[in-house]
TrEMBL record:
Residues 194-289 form the Peptidase M20 dimerisation domain. Signal peptide: none annotated. This is M20 family metallopeptidase. It comes from Amycolatopsis tucumanensis. InterPro entries: Amidohydrolase, Bact_exopeptidase_dim_dom, Peptidase_M20, Peptidase_M20_dimer. Gene3D superfamilies: 3.30.70.360, Zn peptidases (3.40.630.10). Coiled coil: none annotated.
């Protein structure tokens, strides 16, 4: 059963549900992409009006940092919610669906932002119980723009005057039972790097391949060679995924093109395996190209690091969820998606957790997942997220 003291937080979060939903729907209707989210930032500022917060806006982005000082001095903890949307055309039929063509909150960031704003209001009401400060990190640019790194550069981790000692973030999942918190110690989410391989041969007529140097079979051979590299160079106990997701070459049926391009993604669960794959991939592609008489240029664009939960903090989150919500679930395996809260967890002991938000009228196994233009997140899960944000801070800063 939930802890009596902490369980009261869930009731308080439920009382804030109208405000949480209102902010979520406002942001959902007006989604914004990338690092510059002026409407979203303004909506969050309005939601925080009247609270005893020290608010600072980002210098290079639409970030917003708010600090709540407790009644007593003490350390700082950081709570994070991301704010940006995705380049998708919404097809949910919701009454508050996106009004912006080609942009949609398909990953739950609107819910994260709304839950964090309500958590700020809930914690302000418990300010007298806090021996320390809470930093609320409202972050733009999670979807590939390295927004967390921008905020770290501008000082979010030290916003309270000293380095945050613990950090916590929540992410909604549309295919997990609504209201269920799940996480795990250690690696939780993968790194993500992007690779592009330019293969250059010599063009010619399709009827005379012997007079050309065809880059297409070289590119095709690289696809299989990269999979062999993974199975023969990477330990099965520290896995990697290398997926070729794009092959482009040629303009018509009777021309051997001069160039071909192979591109894809690299996912790993440790920085050592990440470094190994990034070192081996060019060697494989260059060797295959040489065997076919082609020149090869490999570019690897760094993405997000591995998201690694501090073991103690992850177990603490699961314990808090049991006490606050009456249930929690230990994840058996990491997932290979990526997350830029990883930059925070590289510097501050903390945890990232998933909050189930599958609509009750949908089978989780059939639910459209995050990044689908038909995804729906159940608003009934929001009080659990608000309460968990608050519980993490109150537990860490108990006077």
């Amino acid at each position: 059963m939930p802890d009596t003291r902490l369980a009261a937080l869930l009731s308080e979060a439920e009382a804030l549900q109208p405000a949480t939903v209102a902010l979520r729907r406002e942001i959902h209707r007006r989604p914004e992409q990338g690092l510059h989210l002026p409407h979203t930032q303004a909506a969050v500022r309005r939601a925080l009006e009247g609270l005893p917060l020290e608010i600072v806006e980002g210098k290079s982005t639409s970030a917003l940092t708010a600090v709540l000082r407790g009644a007593q001095d003490g350390p700082a903890v950081l709570l994070r919610g991301d704010m940006d949307a995705l380049p998708l055309q919404e097809d949910t039929g919701l009454e508050f669906a996106s009004e912006v063509d080609g942009t949609m909150h398909a990953c739950g960031h609107d819910g994260h932002t709304a839950m964090l704003a309500s958590a700020a209001r809930l914690l302000a009401a418990h300010r007298h119980e806090l021996a320390g400060s809470v930093v609320f990190m409202f972050q733009p640019g999670e979807e590939g723009y390295h927004g967390a790194r921008h905020m770290i550069h501008e000082g979010v981790l030290d916003a309270a005057g000293s380095r945050a000692e613990k950090a916590f973030g929540i992410h909604l999942l549309s295919h997990v039972e609504s209201g269920l918190i799940t996480t795990r110690p250690g690696p939780l989410m993968a790194s993500n790097d992007t690779f592009t391989v330019q293969v250059t041969g010599k063009g010619g007529h399709g009827s005379s391949p012997h007079n050309a140097i065809d880059p297409v079979p070289a590119a095709a051979a690289m696809v299989g060679a990269l999979q062999t590299m993974v199975t023969r160079r990477v330990s099965v106990f520290d896995p990697a995924v290398v997926s070729v997701t794009r092959i482009q070459a040629g303009t018509t049926t009777n021309i051997i093109p001069e160039t071909a391009e192979v591109a894809g993604t690299i996912r790993t669960l440790s920085e050592s395996t990440r470094a190994l794959v990034k070192a081996e991939l060019p060697k494989v592609c260059e060797a295959v190209g040489e065997a076919h008489g082609c020149r090869v240029l490999v570019d690897i664009e760094p993405g997000y690091p591995v998201t690694v939960n501090d073991p103690d903090q992850a177990l603490r989150v699961l314990d808090l969820a049991q006490r606050v919500l009456g249930r929690a679930e230990l994840m058996a395996d990491p997932i290979m998606g990526a997350e830029d809260f990883s930059y925070v967890l590289q510097r501050v002991p903390g945890a990232f957790a998933f909050l189930g938000a599958c609509p009750p009228d949908v089978d989780p196994a059939e639910a459209p997942t995050n990044h689908s233009n038909r995804v729906r997140h159940h608003e009934g899960a929001f009080p659990a997220g608000v309460a968990m944000y608050a519980a993490f801070a109150l537990d860490a800063l108990a006077g």
